[in-house]
Design goal:
- The protein is mainly α.
- The protein is 71% helix and 2% strand.
- The protein is built from 23 helices and 2 strands.
- The protein has helices spanning 3-16, 29-53, 57-60, 67-71, 79-88, 90-95, 102-111, 115-128, 131-147, 151-157, 167-183, 187-194, 204-218, 221-237, 241-258, 261-268, 278-291, 295-306, 313-328, 332-358, 391-399, 404-407, 413-463, and strands spanning 375-378, 381-384.
- Strands 1-2 form a two-stranded antiparallel sheet.
- A hairpin with a 2-residue loop joins β1 (375-378) and β2.
- The longest helix has 51 residues, at 413-463.
- Residues 1-27 have low confidence and may be disordered.
């Protein structure tokens, strides 16, 4: 195989693999600081908002003698009212620091980003309560930081005393500790945490998948494959489709990278056709087929990808893969045509993205889908926020809209506008980072297409 073709193949495997998102961490450090900043602005605003709201007699006079009496007045659909009542009864709640029901109130406060009020109660519990109570309070705070990807703070609040937690929370704490270590590139420490989660825990499957990935990071391929295969056998008995497909893709790309092409190809074929991992699997089939010398299989898989309308990496890669496979099979005219088509495709996509990057960007709330995935659509371009940014941000962004009807009654109109604008600016900046990330990927493929075309031309000239 020519060195150039081998180089393209290696690049495609690395950029197409299930683990390609890991390189993102270094690129978004500035954005993480921005996320932390807007979160603090939100928390400070929340503190002022309820301070003003509680001047209203409707809330000011609502005092209760016990936590149980207060809980009876709370309604899960009325978050602002709930929070106001909890904050208005802080002195009473602190007297019952040893009542386990206090953790329900702390959790409700953290859910709406009323951090200052929640921290007041957490401090009361940790200072006045015994070790078990303090551990439960710190567990809630660790989960809060875990959502915000503040890994050092997660570990600070989940010390060796987590064994005071009941089983499910203890297992959850182990998983959070493991992921935090893993995100900090402490894979060996992460493995030790994952291994503590028992097989009858609801967190066992997640721990095992992360354990496998941690082993892969350490270069322990055999151990990782054994773990994934074991989980596949378990999932087949009582399948959870999303987990099953993720396991298949993880294992298949690992096998591909290790050179087990036949097994990798078979594993890729197990991924559901309607799965969100389907196009990743089809790309994997194309790559493994090419390595097996099955040029027709590789071309068929790539041809299928090119027909897809999804704005995602495997579809974009297929435009480079097609001529690459033609070149590999010595169909040079088809390869030349394909590289030219790929160059045209990438140039058009890049120019469109650059126009959007350089123009004012307005990602209004209507463009953000608040379900399991947070996305924004810009004509033919889709910005997927969920793989790169924490979900809490978008939930909090939606939450501030509930303040609006109350703002007219107090003095926080300017602060509310500042907070809303900060969220808007942050979301737009996140969108621009994603746009630039797309441009960088496409530019890499454009350069490889041009290089492939130039190489074909040079070889043809030399032969003449």
């Amino acid at each position: 195989m020519h060195a150039y073709i081998q180089k393209i193949f290696t690049v495609l495997i690395l950029t197409s693999s299930f683990f390609s998102i890991t390189c993102w961490a270094n690129e978004q450090s500035d954005t993480q600081e921005m996320l932390d900043r807007v979160d603090k602005v939100h928390q400070d605003f929340t503190q002022k908002f309820y301070r003003d709201l509680l001047k209203d007699p409707i809330y000011k006079t609502k005092k209760y003698s016990s936590i149980s009496a207060l809980l009876k007045q709370l309604n899960d659909t009325q978050e602002i009212k709930n929070t106001a009542l909890i904050i208005n009864n802080m002195n009473m709640i602190k007297r019952y620091y040893d009542d386990p029901a206090i953790f329900i109130l702390i959790k409700k406060l953290l859910k709406v980003n009323a951090y200052h009020a929640a921290k007041t109660l957490i401090n009361e519990v940790t200072e006045q309560g015994d070790t078990s109570l303090a551990t439960h309070a710190n567990f809630l705070l660790a989960d809060f930081y875990f959502q915000r990807r503040q890994w050092k703070k997660v570990l600070k609040n989940l010390t060796t005393e987590i064994n005071f937690l009941e089983n499910q929370k203890y297992h959850s704490a182990l998983l959070m500790r493991g992921i935090s270590f893993q995100k900090m590139n402490e894979h060996y420490l992460a493995i030790k945490e994952y291994e503590k989660v028992p097989n009858d825990s609801t967190y066992y499957t997640s721990s095992q998948l992360n354990l496998a990935i941690a082993n892969l990071r350490q270069g322990w391929w055999t151990d990782a494959h054994i773990i994934i295969q074991k989980q596949l056998n378990v999932q087949k008995k009582s399948p959870h489709e999303a987990t099953l497909n993720r396991l298949y893709v993880t294992l298949a790309y690992s096998l591909l990278n290790q050179g087990y092409y036949r097994t990798a190809r078979t594993t890729f074929h197990q991924v559901g056709s309607n799965s969100k991992y389907a196009n990743q699997a089809i790309l994997g089939i194309a790559l493994t087929a090419a390595q097996q010398g099955d040029d027709i299989g590789a071309l068929n898989a790539t041809r299928y990808l090119k027909k897809q309308l999804h704005d995602e990496l495997p579809v974009h890669e297929s435009y480079l893969l097609m001529p690459f496979f033609y070149e590999k099979s010595n169909q040079l005219v088809a390869a030349s045509t394909g590289y030219t088509q790929a160059e045209t495709y990438y140039k058009k996509k890049i120019n469109d993205l650059k126009k959007r990057l350089n123009a004012p960007l307005d990602l209004s709330l209507s463009l953000i889908t608040a379900d399991t995935n947070f996305t924004a659509s810009l004509a033919e371009n889709t910005l997927s926020f969920t793989p790169y940014y924490p979900n809490y941000y978008f939930k909090n962004r939606s939450l501030i809209g509930k303040y609006q009807s109350y703002i007219e009654k107090n003095t926080l109109q300017k602060q509310y506008k500042d907070l809303s604008d900060t969220y808007q600016q942050t979301t737009n900046e996140m969108g621009k980072v994603l746009l630039q990330h797309k441009i960088d990927n496409l530019t890499s493929y454009l350069d490889q297409s041009r290089y492939g075309l130039a190489r074909l031309f040079d070889n043809n000239t030399a032969e003449q």
